[in-house]
């Protein structure tokens, strides 16, 4: 096997990790090596045995994305390993629609409430608000109706009032949405969102045509809340590794500042009484759990 055959080495190592019984194959007989035989993996991936042998031996260097996707499924690779497989072959995976991106893991829901003094929420690939903690729910309360932040920014009548930095904020979100559109080109929600706003919003249409791509990172945001007044937050964005496309955003005020006091007072009614622990993180619009549960 050539020294430069990193793709073949990766395939061979992962083939050895798959228990034949886990993929419905009989594990008996004379098996000199652990895992799947070459011919078994070839059948599972829908490719000829000769082609797969040449690929693993480094004699075939240009596998298609469809073949790599089939091999990844047959080898039961997770998303990280699948992406690595594509990169070894000189390709980049195209991530299709995945319903798991709409569901927030219970552990992440609990994590939201680990930020009792900050606004924490989870966004999907199209920037749908999938879950919030009490602080974020209170902070977003001026926006009834849509729970998609791009639609809020470009379509809600109060957006420019609540977000005084609206021009910069809309730039950031469109640049980030274009990044997600490239990562998830088949996502129907992103496609519909872009089509709707290109039709309905001249501002969005102009920003989208600019072709700038940049993910959400650290940003300073000012919110003019109708009850709490001016709230200043520094936001940090974290990718959710086990749900590609989901992002956790946490906006924290300066400790001891007026913004910190305003956030605490704003979230207090949702918690029952000021100072009580927050309710479990939940999807937007869902009622807090009863106290004492």
From TrEMBL:
PROSITE patterns named among the record's database cross-references: HTH_CROC1
Region of interest: Disordered: 268-293
Entries under CDD domains matching the protein: HTH_XRE
Domain HTH cro/C1-type: start-end pairs: 35-82
Pfam families per UniProt: HTH_31, MLTR_LBD
Biased composition (Low complexity): 268-279
Coiled-coil regions, chain positions: none
GO terms for MF: DNA binding
Protein name as it appears in the record: Helix-turn-helix domain-containing protein
Species this chain originates from: Micromonospora mirobrigensis
């Amino acid at each position: 096997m050539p020294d430069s055959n990193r793709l073949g080495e990766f395939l061979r190592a992962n083939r050895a990790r798959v228990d034949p019984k886990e993929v419905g194959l009989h594990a008996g007989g004379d098996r000199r090596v652990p895992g799947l035989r070459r011919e078994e993996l070839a059948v599972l991936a829908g490719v000829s045995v000769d082609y797969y042998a040449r690929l693993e031996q480094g004699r075939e260097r240009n596998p298609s994305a469809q073949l790599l996707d089939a091999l990844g499924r047959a080898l039961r690779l997770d998303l990280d390993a699948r992406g690595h497989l594509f990169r070894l072959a000189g390709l980049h995976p195209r991530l299709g629609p995945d319903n798991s991106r709409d569901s927030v893991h219970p552990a992440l829901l609990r994590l939201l409430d680990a930020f009792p003094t900050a606004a924490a929420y989870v966004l999907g690939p199209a920037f749908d608000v999938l879950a919030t903690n009490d602080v974020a729910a209170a902070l977003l309360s001026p926006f009834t109706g849509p729970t998609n932040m791009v639609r809020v920014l470009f379509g809600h009548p109060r957006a420019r009032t609540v977000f005084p930095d609206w021009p910069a904020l809309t730039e950031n979100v469109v640049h980030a949405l274009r990044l997600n559109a490239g990562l998830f080109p088949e996502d129907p929600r992103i496609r519909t969102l872009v089509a709707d706003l290109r039709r309905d919003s001249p501002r969005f249409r102009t920003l989208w045509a600019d072709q700038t791509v940049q993910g959400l990172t650290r940003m300073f945001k000012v919110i003019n809340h109708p009850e709490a007044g001016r709230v200043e937050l520094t936001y940090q964005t974290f990718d959710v590794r086990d749900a590609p496309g989901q992002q956790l955003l946490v906006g924290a005020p300066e400790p001891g500042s007026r913004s910190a006091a305003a956030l605490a007072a704003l979230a207090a009614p949702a918690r029952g009484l000021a100072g009580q622990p927050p309710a479990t993180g939940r999807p937007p619009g869902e009622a807090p759990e009863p106290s004492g549960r």
